[in-house]
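Section 4.2 – Deliverable D4.2 (structural model, holo form)

The reporting period included a commitment to supply a predicted holo structure for the target in complex with magnesium ion. Inputs used:
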Amino acid sequence: MKPLLLFFTITFSVVFLSTCTMEIPPRTEFVLGTVCTVNLYEKGTEAIYTEIFARLHALESILSANDDESNIGKINASAGIASVEAKQETITVLQEAIKYATASNGAFDPTIGPLVKAWNIGTDYAAVPSKNSIQKALSLIGYQNVKITGNLIYLPKKGMKLDFGGIAKGYAADEIVKILVSHKIHKAIIDLGGNIYALGEKAPGKSWSIGIRNPEKIDGESILNLPIKNLSIVTSGIYERFFEQDGKRYHHILDTKTGYPVENELLSVTIFSANSMQADALSTTVFVLGPVLGLQFVDGLKNVEALFINKNHEIQITSGLRGLIKITDPTYKIITQ
Ligand code: FAD
Ligand code: MG
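Output (structure tokens):
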């Protein structure tokens, strides 16, 4: 090869390589009723980001309880009238939700829709409902009544409604992981409105450092951090969606027995699992169950860790998290179980 030609070949290769490894910034879009950000680091391409967000928008158009045209919207509108052909995504999430509903004896219940609508938390119309409307909503809740026959779903009582707000963001995160694996991408941070998936590790042998937010402050700083890799981290807390009326705070995690927001000692529950749908369903379930029953519930599960923060600024953790947590806000302390 002549020296000049060799020079151009090398120059081209270097430019090409550096173009290949140049990071495309993370992408953020409003979808699933929240702000979703995906960061693929040096493997990010416009085409892959577009594929991911197209999937998220498609999932919203199937699973949203706020859209009359979604699969869930149609199933809900046909309650007490007819069964509706369900998409595979709807059946997958519903079956998983029913698993947690059964295991928690209805503390988590995907038929919570009428109660969610009665409270309207997260909308401009949020207000404490009348006792009557709470009783009416409670009478419609019951995961045991949902009929799944093949790909048909039937809600037998008029007014019954499915709501996957406590589980579907986790499912969506797992679906993104599938897309990434199909592209051989093994390093990413997926953040679906606080439903996090930290895929792979930050660098070879180096974990991601994940912070847990101050549960008493919206957009608060983190109070602790811990190293993790290849895990989903999902938090349910009283600070995420709430409104105030007559000086009292009403948050969005609802008690299927009383019909009111869950009242216990907890500020937040964080679940760690390689399966994000499981982490999402569990964070809500365990929050409803409360500190004692909730901890017993997760202690019995394999490959799941949990972190509870209560109103006395005490942190309880499952055994797999011992020694990993670095507290950054000294008003919080880890107590033994
Ligand atoms: P989690 O603790 O994971 O879940 C709390 C949510 O679960 C509640 O908001 C309620 O929906 C449900 N829930 C409450 N109590 C229980 C219980 N006991 N058992 C079972 N479930 C319970 N928000 C909007 O404002 N507008 C939208 O158009 C909109 N569309 C959405 C579409 C999809 C497909 C999804 C998944 C979510 C959508 N959201 C929308 C957001 C949704 O309403 C919730 O606010 C959000 O999912 C709560 O997630 P979280 O992680 O904060 O809390
Ligand atoms: Mg949840």
